[in-house]
Design a protein that fits this description.
433 residues, mainly alpha, 0% strand, Growth Hormone, Chain: A, 2 domains, globular, single chain
Length: 433
């Protein structure tokens, strides 16, 4: 069992890419919080588009943005790090510029803006994880990844609060928020690029893992699609259930969302550090069990009386957030630990493909299951998540057996080669006069 990682703020900032990079993350997150929660409102209020057309354009932009991930993975495997992070931010600057240039009623320009914003949003997580994995190693890397997520959630929360306060200004305020978002992305890109972090593939290959292929991670990637549903539970599933099924005040949904943000910001690093005493794969399986328990808790809350349902949902949401924290602190860290350095970019790109796909389909799945009752929604999520946790744990055993089998085959091949060499030497000796 590994020892627990100690949290040292200065070391954490250094392991995350340094103070300039931390500022870049904060500025980028602040800009994202200013616009992303209100992008639908921008399309409807400023551009006078219909809500369905706006929603479809945003969904298509997020999904099509995943197409860039194989190219991002190959770029990272050529050694680029801070340049890719900066590029993911600059692409979003272009998206904001198209948003500001779009005249009222032009859905195609809005769709193009959503596409560039989607490309940047999909490329950033893999680029950031690769950069952190280059400057930090082992459990320090895990804590740095957790610190980056906490900082990003804090910045996005602050941006969303600031944007909410400015919404009284109407369409002019939304346009101003978009312009400030573009400037924030531009400043963050400049700061990220100035860090000048670059990997050296040749040096990494010389460490002895250069002949290893990218890990398949089939069970992990499939499970991640289900795990990632938890990220949309506080934003989509709980508000939908509380308002339409429990007929509770929308204040409960807002309180749960705020509590989720605060808990992630304050507990992401400490929980990740505390869980570092266990293997990463085991921690990821534990996250699935915790999430399953929370989904069953949401299911049980539906059978309580009218006055108790909403408070119990709020209490169980804390357990769900804890599962989210454990999942977020172990999943990316596990991928970076499994992948050899020379294929890290491609492994992270594949992982982001599964994450992006899960985030894209989860709203559709949640809204489709909810009308069929609590058992369909929460029972379905609980069953799928528990199966995913089992698949994650089982894949470890399969990898162990495969490694043992591969080692046995290698040993047998070496034995055959040695025997063949000995027989060849014996024949040569026998032919001598």
């Amino acid at each position: 069992m590994a020892t627990t990682t100690k949290i040292q703020p200065r070391a954490l900032v250094r392991a995350s890419g340094g103070s300039r990079y931390a500022v870049a993350l904060a500025v980028d997150a602040l800009g994202t919080g200013l616009l992303r929660p209100f992008l639908l409102l921008y399309g409807v209020s400023v551009l006078r588009l219909s809500a369905p057309a706006t929603g479809i354009a945003m969904t298509v932009g997020a999904v099509v943005g995943l197409v860039c991930m194989p190219a991002v993975g190959r770029w990272l495997d050529r050694g680029a790090r801070s340049t890719v992070v900066a590029a993911s931010m600059l692409v979003r600057v272009l998206g904001v510029a198209l948003l500001l240039a779009a005249p009222a009623g032009h859905v195609w320009l809005f769709a193009a803006a959503a596409l560039f914003l989607g490309i940047g949003n999909q490329a950033w997580p893999a680029a950031h994880a690769a950069l952190v994995a280059t400057v930090a190693h082992g459990r320090e890397r895990d804590a740095a990844l957790a610190g980056g997520r906490a900082l990003r959630n804090a910045g996005m929360g602050a941006g969303a609060l600031l944007a909410t306060a400015c919404l009284a200004g109407g369409t002019t305020a939304l346009q101003a928020l978009a312009a400030v978002t573009g400037l924030a992305y531009l400043a963050a890109a400049a700061l990220a690029w100035s860090v000048h972090v670059h990997a050296h593939p040749a040096a990494a290959a010389a460490k002895g893992r250069d002949d290893e292929p990218a890990p398949r991670m089939r069970a992990l990637l499939a499970a991640n699609v289900i795990y990632v549903f938890c990220l949309n539970v506080p934003e989509i599933a709980l508000p939908l259930v509380l308002v339409t099924q429990m007929h509770a005040s929308p204040v409960w949904s807002g309180a749960i969302f705020v509590a989720n943000t605060v808990l992630v910001v304050t507990l992401q690093v400490p929980v990740t550090a505390w869980m570092s005493r266990f293997p990463r794969r085991s921690v990821l399986a534990i996250a699935g069990v915790v999430l399953t328990a929370s989904y069953l808790g949401f299911l049980a809350a539906n059978f309580l009386g009218h006055g108790w349902g909403a408070p119990v949902v709020a209490a169980v949401s804390v357990v769900c957030t804890l599962g989210e924290i454990i999942y977020a602190g172990s999943a990316t860290a596990l991928v970076t630990a499994l992948a050899p350095a020379h294929v890290l970019g491609r492994a992270l790109a594949r992982f982001q493909l599964s994450t992006g796909f899960g985030l894209a389909v989860s709203p559709v799945a949640i809204t489709a299951l909810a009308p069929h009752g609590p058992a369909a929604l929460w029972g379905g999520l609980a069953g799928a998540t528990l199966l995913s946790a089992g698949a994650v744990a089982t894949e470890k055993e399969q990898e162990t057996r495969l490694s043992v089998a591969a080692a046995g085959r290698e040993q047998a091949r070496d034995s055959r080669t040695a025997g063949w060499s000995q027989r060849l030497r014996a024949r040569r000796f026998a032919k001598r006069p």
